[in-house]
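Hi team, as promised in this morning's meeting, here are the two structures we talked about. I've kept the exact order from the run log so nobody has to guess. The first one is mostly here for context; it's the second one we should focus on when we meet again. Sequence first, then the predicted structure tokens.
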Amino acid sequence: MAADIGTLLADRLRRVRWEGGGEALDRVLAVVLDGIERDLVGVGLTPERRADVIRLIAAAADADTATLPPLGSDAAFRDWVGALQAQLRSRDRVLAGVGGGAGAAHLGDTAEARPTEARPTVPAELLAALRARPMAERVRFSEIVAQVLNSVLPQADSPGRRLLMSVLDSYLASIPGRPILYRGRPEWLTLDAFDLLRAEAADSFERALERYSLVEYAEVSPVADRHVEEWTEFRSWIDEQSGLALAPQIRKVTFQYNRATDHLPWHIDKPNKVALNCLIMLERSELRQSALQLYTHEGTIIEVDLEPGEVLLFKGDATPHRRTPLADGEFVRLMSIGFMLAGQP
């Protein structure tokens, strides 16, 4: 039976360990353990995904789990966390805590990240094996990625952080399409079209909204839905920019941040819902503390502060991204138009 994504990446991490990166890697894995214990993602992990994350950490750490109970209950989870932390400490290595965030570069209209050191080349056989994994497994793994990202990216730059992210980059590189494709004001988003989408979004939030702990969502109105579905110039532009074979279905949602500390944690979009994400900034307050951040394949974090009427097109399933917390009195409202790849269930 072919190895799953977690096994493939754990094998890659073990190779990093054998090649001399074990001490640095242990420090970062310990912080990931701390993150899963406190649920840094903030939106909750299912018991199944929580177990997947801790098994991945155990495999990457070459930990002895033979005497540990089956993962399932909260008590078993705590036993695993404690045992893995103890094994890492027993190696007489100083475990690093969470440090400051990585520096962010501004993303200009050319959508180019600042220069950085060369990233390790991903072995061709690993890329091929990752690309062969089924969609259902990729969907599950996107939840694991979120937990790891929110435990690792806030750390200060270190050899261990770079090692772990380089292995995660192997998975991201296996996903087809360029990560960031466009930022700007495309011709298809005319003033009339923008005014229609903005007004319909405002009406939708007046009628009904759903608040999750971090953000508010509203259903796209029938008028806006029909406009997007029949927007031939927009769809032609999407096909041209992406160069991907996309499914005809379009996923549309409006969301807003309007409370202090509203945000979205680091994540990648689930590939069965939003492989390609087109964000349209509808409204933005004058007060601006929050920004959209994206982690690039070059290993940098870039910030995107869209103006109303600007568009960002990026591969949501291959580009880790988040919205940083808002200040008191700040407001952001966007529309997300998502596409799946053709041929997906």
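And here is the second protein, the one for discussion:
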Amino acid sequence: MTARWPSWRTDLAISLVSFAGGLLLYAAGGWRMFLGDGPWSGAPDWLLLVPMTVMAGCCLLRRLAPGTAEGIGLVALAADTMLGGSLGTALIFTQVVYDACVYGRAWLWRANLIGGVAGSVLAAVAGCSSPATGAASCWAWSSRWSWCCPR
């Protein structure tokens, strides 16, 4: 008979591996998502490690308080986006959302689904209505897909 590994060790392992992966992305230079855009994008680059650390800490709450973990993670993701965005933080956030859907209450996965669809629609509308590049990029995209979306 083999002994089971306690769930807190699994949570700790997921948190540490997520943080290590984010650190590898940061060290490799593949961490900027928005190439300097954002209200706080003039801040030092090492500040991107703060939201990533908070996000990795949210993985520790994945079974204990999944809704709280997702809420804190959403605040950390917003701060990270305002700093210019990092790929590591966004990837860890996907893990936090997944855990909230698996270990949270039933309404939480429904709220995630509705919020994800609404966020995607709002991002598409905002991108297409952007005065700088929105209309041109939406026209180019729609011309590639004209077989399903006639103009």
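Starting points for discussion:
Confidence is low (pLDDT under 50) at residues 141-151.
Residues 101 and 112 are 8 Å apart (CA to CA).
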